[in-house]
Amino acid sequence: MSAEPAIARAAFSLEAAGQEQHGSFVDETIGIIVRHGGDIVSFAAGAPAAEALALARVDELMTDVLARDGMSALNYGVTEGEQELREIVAEGARARGIDADAEDVIVTAGALQAIDLACRVFLRAGDLVVSGSPSFANALSAFRNRGARVLEVPQDEDGIDVSAAARTLRQRGERAKLFFVVPNFDNPTGTTLSEERRDALLALAAAHDAVVIEDDPYEALRYRGKDLAPLAARMRDRVIHLGSFSKTFLPGIRVGWAVADPVTVRRMAAAKQTMDSSTSTLGQRLVIAFHRRGTFPDHLGALRRLYAAKQSAARTALDREFRGTGVSWNDPDGGFYFWMRTGVSSRELLDVAIEEGVAFVPGDAFTTTGGCRDALRFSYCAPTPARIDEGARRLRRAYDRVRARD
Ligand SMILES: Cc1ncc(COP(=O)(O)O)c(C=O)c1O
Hints:
The protein has helices at 6-16, 25-36, 50-54, 58-69, 83-95, 110-122, 137-145, 162-172, 195-207, 231-234, 262-272, 281-292, 296-322, 346-356, 385-405; strands at 41-42, 105-108, 128-133, 149-156, 159-160, 178-181, 211-215, 239-244, 256-259, 328-329, 337-341, 358-359, 361-362, 375-379. It is of the alpha/beta class and 406 residues long. It folds into two domains: 8-53 and 298-405, Aspartate Aminotransferase, domain 1 (Alpha-Beta Complex); 73-295, Aspartate Aminotransferase, domain 2 (3-Layer(aba) Sandwich). Bound molecules: pyridoxal-5'-phosphate (PLP). Residues 46, 110-112, 136, 182, 187, 215, 217, 244, 246, 251, 256 line the site of pyridoxal-5'-phosphate.
């Protein structure tokens, strides 16, 4: 056998032509931590806490599903999703002011698959996607894997700077095909798109006759302040609204959804039929069984209390460790993340941090431009408050070691 198999040469020629597959360094970071082993406090993963997963009492749910549905729970399903689940999702959307029926819903393998399906339906090579910068890394890669170009627009504490987006598009004389936004407790910045910016973004999208992906997996995890109406409740006909049971139930069952018009749902279903045919029937039935218990609202309340306590522990620990250093972080009203600026290279800091027993995701993982090098995403969702406290201590030690090199 030759040193380089033909299959690898074929992939290499695509890479050389600028058509390589893009992934996510966020997912890579998790692999780095696993390979390193040992005692690491991970502020890297945006994954629910073990305590949160246990609240679902999935063993009982599994017994209920198998007793009730038998082997049909383990068979293929309808591409658009289980009818009862589509109705549950539509009802949740209506409660948030979105005019939706079950036929406007497609159940997907997580919100991430819904992003990819929307890209397959709406994007062609060379199309321009506008997103905040930094932005959800996996979505940026999904756009690029369709051959789309990404215009990254600065974000501030109110979310994506819509005026800057409009100005840049005007100066370049370009038409945007798609806008991508995480309106609540953004990944990675934690920011929430303000009322004014929501309306401005929709107006800009309308001016470009563009589609908006509203990716909203964190909306139920608000710890302070009042809910803002989703973009899809303000303008129904050009917004694809995405949600997920990953952050509020069980990410491992891979169940999310898109709410759009029935024609878009049909197109997304066609795209899904070449991927996985249907979302895991068992996963969907577990969500349905959990919903039938009637305790979802209480469950969300418990999650909010759990994560608010973690956020508060993280705020206290970072304040103790980093006060007076010039390191800064924000104070989101919900979600899983702080966005920190350290003034040192986050890649360098990560190497040392792992030696010290703590991890995070470097900021440049969330851009396509190599920016945000001195920033990092600090996820407080998974460790317990005591571990958060210890992790912040370790992070300070790593920071001091990197600073000492300057
Ligand atoms: C903004 C955003 N969108 C989508 C996802 C993917 O979620 P899911 O597990 O539903 O695919 C995540 C998960 O980290 C996220 O942060």
